[in-house]
Structures are given as structure tokens and as C-alpha cells.
Specification:
heterodimer, A: mainly alpha, two-stranded antiparallel ribbon, B: mainly alpha, about 65% helix
């Protein structure tokens, strides 16, 4: 009953003309950047952050959230029609989606991706509404040791879920923590690693680092390969899949939604992982796995449902604990702080209109997205013929002005250029940058909680293992780390990522 | 070196980690450590620096044994031109204003792609500069310097 009255409050907020407009703007922009390869939600939300200064907090968060889950819809269009992931989270959709398009079933694939995303979006909205309040109440009981332990768990999970070598992922995380320490020490006021630059005394800006690594870095890497891509299906064919296909798809949609919702909540999880896991699951339980790769509709329905569900449930740890589990959530934390809201367990009780309005807007946003992506699919298909050679100068220009205007600082532009180079190097060395960015945000919080925990415990480091909640969280982190280092798991994990 | 290092990508990643860790320890050697009860500014960075150095060395060690992909080819043209265009933008923005800065940014960035004709680059730069002015100055009314300071009307 409580849930219903909360959702009703949310609907009231989300259905005002202004918020509807921002919700629509967010999901439309999300679809656009989802369709376009070479620009993702991290770079887009970074660019838009300076603009959100002027908006109402609720409107701005509704819009930014819309970009993230809207991108999950758009990404599938590019994957199916061009065999390129518009978003990283649509990587596995390429396999069977493109195969379907080659058989003249592009319309079916697009339809099932949109339907699956919609179902997943609706369910994930309910999951978010049901689980966030109890979790935030639990979180109110957490003290500094528990928060420190949670962050350790989050970072370990980010290692487990990162692609490639475990050692490199660990290194990226610790490097991220180190970068987060640049600036004034919040407890003592001492300057650290600022090289005497006053611009650095507030630390490196998250948006500056994110735009360098996720904006500039990929542009450089993309320009190395020739940008030619062939639009396969000019005509999409019939949209509604035949009954036989739909029957197979429903099961995959349900399973994808479950897998995605679960993995979205886990620290380090998110849309990318959800889609991978769902594809593996579908292939594993299929009666005839050989159909996969040759246009199996489950291979589109499952992952596309999973990535949308995960995109939405990844808001849960951010909204209840104030802990970002992926770079987009870290940006959302930034967006809330810009508006003077400290993310954490207090948000639900102190800002009920904002919290429930945002959740309700996700359901409305999903409704918009189905309309945008089914009847209006033709518009997005035409956008696919926009050449990257015209796109990247535009991205570069918007990034540069965005970085500068965030703090009216030229120094930030220079720093972003440096991180752009670093981002390119990471791509070349196959170091996944997402864990670094999460650690960058968590680093200062970790230090703060580490210090406070030890001060409360009068300098006794045993505090982390004598408090039951903190001890069990740390034990979970240790077990996770041991499992991932174990050779058999490592091999299995490599296989999973190879499949993509 | 190609024969000793089995995985050059991992080797260089490890070198970056170890380098950053050692740099953190060196730069932070004067930061006060404090005690566990009341930690100084140097305590946490020291821990992080040591951990990063160890991970870096371990990554390098692993790259000498395990198997890995061959090292990738680096193309300098996009690296140099994209980074130069961004730096140029930063250097010109507060001196000559948004119009000059974004025109130069786009112009230089355009040539990061090999087959780019001059007239095409000029057209793209003109169009995007106009869009920048429209969006940021007209639309969002951001307090940006638009034209070179001397001729600014206000």
C-alpha cells in the first residue's frame, strides 16, 4: 500500500508538463547517442552537467537518467543494422541481431529489442521502488567501518567484472584512488600532489577526468581505424515478429530482466555486464545452442532486456548508499551535489518528491522510448548514415566548451587533454577505464571513512573485523577476490568475455 | 625485448602503475604520516602508493611469463592533432574568444583524419562554430568571451 502511495506521489511529480518535457528530452537524446557509435552516456552526461545548474533538481535528474536508459534502447538499433555496438552494452546484440538483419528480419529484431527493453524497464522500475526504501533504512545504521568495507567490496566487484587481466584491473583501481587524492586533504587542509597549482587544490574534477578518458580517448582511437561502415538494411521489413519467434522471445525477456536487475544492483555491475551474462544464459539453456550466432531471437531479446533493467537498477546503490557502481552513477552523484543534494540514505526521507518523481519518470520514459523506437525507427535509421568524420569534431567542440564552462577554467581543458591521452593509452593497453573512474570517486570517501573508523576505534585497526556487518562485507570481498584469482574461474571468465 | 616480454600491453600497463606508485611515494615523502588514531595527510597516500607499486611490479612480472596479444600499432597523426586542437582551444579561448577558439579547434581536429580536403574542413569549422555560438551564447547564455577582447562590444 505504501508503495502505491509513493508511486502516486512520484507520478504527480513526473507528470507535470515541465518534467514530462525533460524526461522526453532525456530519452530522445539518449536514443540519439545510443544510435551513434563513438559517443556514449558518460561523455553526453558530462557535457550536459553545466547546463543542469539552471534546472530544477528533479527535472535535471529525470533528464540525465533518461539519457542513460535511453541509450540502451538506441544502442540496439546500431548493433542490429550496422553490426557495430552503438553502446558497449549492445556488443552481444550484434551477434544475433545482425544475423537476423542479414536474413531480412531486421524489423523483428528491432521490435523484440524494444519490447524487451520496455518490459525490463517496467519491472526494473518496480524493483527500484520496492528495494530502495528498505535498503536505505538499513544504510542509516551503517557507520564509518561499514562504509569503508562496502567501498572495498564495490571495488573488488569492479575488478571481478572488468574485462581482461585481474592484475591490470586492480592496478587501474588503485591508480584511480591515487588520482582521487589529488587536492586538499579534507581533514587536515594540507595540499597533496597539487604541484603548487591553485586549480588543483579542489582536486581533479570528475567530469574533466571522465571527458578526457571517455570523450577524447575514444575519438583518437576511432580515428585510427577507417570509419567506413555499411548500413545493411535500408528497408527494415515487417516489424511485428511471427508468433513462433515471440513465443521464444518472452522467456528470454523474462530471464534477461531478472539477470539484468540483479547485476545492476551489484557494485561494479551495470548495463554492459547484464547483457553479457544474459547472452551466456540464453545460449546455455537453449535446446539447440547452434542456432546462436545465426539469428536466434533469444540472443537479441535477452541481452537487450538485461541491459535496460541493469541500467535502471544500478540507481539503487547510488540512491540508497550514495555509492556509485559505474561511471554514469558517479556522474549522477556529481549532478546531485551540484544541486546541493548529498546522495545517501537520507535522500528518500528528505526529498521524497525528487526520489519518487525520478522513479516514476523512468516508467514514463520507457513508454516514450517504445514510441520513439518502434513507429519512429525510420528517423534513427537515417541518422546512422551520419558519417563519423562530421560527428567527432562536433563531439570535441561540445566537450571542450562543456569542460571550460563547468568552472570557467582553462586549466581544466588542459587537464582533460592529458587524460584524453591517458584514455587512449588505456585503450591501447587494454586497460578498462571504468574501474579507474569508480575508484577515483570512491578514493576520497574511502580515506575519510578509513580515518573516521580508526579514530572512533581509538586507533585499533581490528575495528573492521570486530563489527559484524563490516566483517561480513569484507569477508565477501575477500572471497570474491580469491575466487577470481583461482585459475579455473579465471579461465571461465576469459571465455565469457571472449564470446562477445 | 620482443622475445623477453610476452605481453607488451601488460608490460607497459605495469610500468605505468609502478611509475605512478613510485612517483606518489616520492612526491608524498614529506607529507606527515601521523598515527593510526589521528592520521596525517600522508598516511593513506603512502598505503596507496605502496600498493600501486607492488601491483605494477606484479603486472610487469606476469607480462614476462604469460601469453598476451602482440603490441598494437600507434598512429601519431590523430594523437597529436586531436590533443593539439584541444590545447589550442584552451590557449585561445580566454584570449581571442569562443569564435576563434572553436574555429581553430575544429579546423585542426578535422585534419586528424587523413583524407580531409581543405574546403571541407573550413565548411565544418564554420558550421560548428556557428552552432557553438547558437547553443552556448544565444541559447544557454553562458558567460563566455565571444570575440577577441579588443573588439568586444560590452
Amino acid at each position: 500500500m505504501d508503495l502505491l502511495s509513493h508511486l502516486a506521489l512520484g507520478m504527480q511529480v513526473a507528470l507535470t508538463g515541465e518534467n514530462l518535457l525533460y524526461c522526453f528530452g532525456g530519452v530522445a537524446l539518449g536514443t540519439l547517442i545510443g544510435v551513434l557509435p563513438g559517443i556514449g552516456p558518460v561523455a553526453t552526461i558530462s557535457m550536459l552537467l553545466p547546463i543542469t545548474f539552471k534546472l530544477e533538481p528533479t527535472s535535471s535528474l529525470i533528464m540525465l537518467a533518461g539519457i542513460y536508459y535511453g541509450a540502451q534502447y538506441g544502442g540496439s538499433t546500431t548493433a542490429i543494422l550496422v553490426n557495430l555496438p552503438g553502446e558497449a552494452s549492445s556488443m552481444v546484440t550484434c551477434i544475433d541481431g545482425y544475423a537476423m538483419a542479414r536474413q531480412g528480419r531486421a524489423g523483428h529484431a528491432l521490435a523484440v529489442a524494444a519490447i524487451g527493453s520496455f518490459v525490463a524497464g517496467c519491472v526494473a522500475t518496480l524493483v527500484l521502488a520496492a528495494f530502495a526504501p528498505p535498503l536505505s533504512e538499513l544504510a542509516l545504521k551503517f557507520g564509518a567501518p561499514e562504509y569503508f568495507a562496502l567501498m572495498v567490496l564495490g571495488l573488488v566487484a569492479a575488478v571481478v567484472l572488468a574485462q581482461g587481466s585481474v592484475l591490470k584491473a586492480l592496478g587501474m583501481i588503485v591508480l584511480g584512488i591515487l588520482l582521487g587524492l589529488v587536492g586538499m586533504d579534507t581533514t587536515t587542509g594540507d595540499q597533496r600532489y597539487t604541484f603548487g597549482l591553485s586549480e588543483l587544490s579542489d582536486g581533479l574534477g570528475f567530469v574533466v577526468v571522465a571527458m578526457g578518458i571517455f570523450g577524447f580517448g575514444p575519438i583518437i582511437a576511432n580515428l585510427e581505424t577507417d570509419g567506413s561502415r555499411e548500413l545493411l538494411a535500408r528497408s527494415i521489413g515487417r516489424i511485428w515478429p511471427p508468433r513462433e519467434d515471440m513465443r521464444r522471445a518472452w522467456g528470454a525477456i523474462a530471464r534477461g530482466t531478472g539477470v539484468g536487475s540483479l547485476l545492476g544492483i551489484l557494485p561494479g555491475g551495470g548495463a554492459v555486464l547484464g547483457s553479457f551474462a544474459s547472452y551466456m544464459l540464453e545460449k546455455r539453456i537453449a535446446r539447440d545452442p547452434s542456432r546462436f550466432g545465426k539469428g536466434a531471437i533469444e540472443g537479441v531479446a535477452g541481452p537487450e532486456s538485461a541491459n535496460n533493467a541493469a541500467a535502471q537498477t544500478s540507481f539503487i546503490p547510488m540512491l540508497t548508499l550514495g555509492l556509485p557502481t559505474n561511471p554514469v552513477m558517479a556522474l549522477m552523484v556529481g549532478a546531485m551535489i551540484i544541486q546541493g543534494i548529498q546522495p545517501g540514505p537520507m535522500v528518500i526521507s528528505e526529498q521524497p518528491a525528487l526520489f519518487w518523481g525520478m522513479i516514476a519518470s523512468m516508467w514514463i520514459g520507457n513508454l516514450f522510448l517504445v514510441v520513439l523506437n518502434l513507429p519512429l525507427i525510420g528517423i534513427w535509421v537515417r541518422l546512422l548514415s551520419v558519417n563519423y568524420r562530421y560527428l567527432y569534431p562536433a563531439i570535441l567542440m561540445f566537450c571542450c566548451v562543456g569542460i571550460y564552462s563547468l568552472q570557467t577554467s582553462v586549466m581544466d581543458v588542459f587537464i582533460a587533454a592529458g587524460f584524453g591521452f591517458l584514455g587512449y593509452v588505456f585503450i591501447k593497453l587494454r586497460c578498462e577505464p571504468a574501474p579507474l573512474l569508480i575508484a577515483f570517486v570512491l578514493g576520497p570517501m574511502m580515506e575519510d571513512n578509513f580515518r573516521r573508523a580508526l579514530t572512533i576505534a581509538k586507533g585499533n585497526p581490528a575495528v573492521f573485523v570486530t563489527r559484524p556487518i563490516s566483517a561480513s562485507i569484507l569477508a565477501m570481498a575477500a572471497i570474491l577476490l580469491l575466487i577470481v584469482i583461482a585459475p579455473s574461474v579465471r579461465r571461465r571468465r576469459e571465455e565469457i568475455f571472449k564470446e562477445g | 625485448m620482443g622475445r623477453i616480454v610476452r605481453a607488451p600491453g601488460d608490460f607497459w600497463a605495469g610500468a605505468i602503475f609502478a611509475g605512478a606508485g613510485i612517483a606518489a611515494l616520492l612526491l608524498g615523502r614529506s607529507y606527515r604520516l601521523g598515527t593510526l588514531l589521528s592520521m596525517g595527510p600522508g598516511y593513506f597516500p603512502r598505503m596507496v602508493g605502496i600498493l600501486l607499486t607492488i601491483l605494477g611490479v606484479a603486472t610487469i612480472g606476469a607480462s614476462l611469463r604469460g601469453r598476451g596479444e602482440p603490441s598494437e600499432v600507434w598512429r601519431w597523426r590523430p594523437i597529436v592533432l586531436i590533443l593539439a586542437s584541444v590545447l589550442l582551444f584552451g590557449w585561445t579561448l580566454e584570449r581571442f574568444g569562443l569564435v576563434v577558439a572553436s574555429a581553430l579547434l575544429v579546423l585542426v581536429a578535422c585534419f586528424a583524419e587523413r583524407e580531409r580536403r581543405v574546403w571541407e574542413a573550413i565548411a565544418v569549422a564554420t558550421a560548428l562554430t556557428f552552432i557553438a555560438w547558437l547553443v552556448f551564447v544565444k541559447g544557454l547564455e553562458m558567460p563566455l568571451l565571444v570575440w577577441p577582447a579588443i573588439t568586444r562590444a560590452d
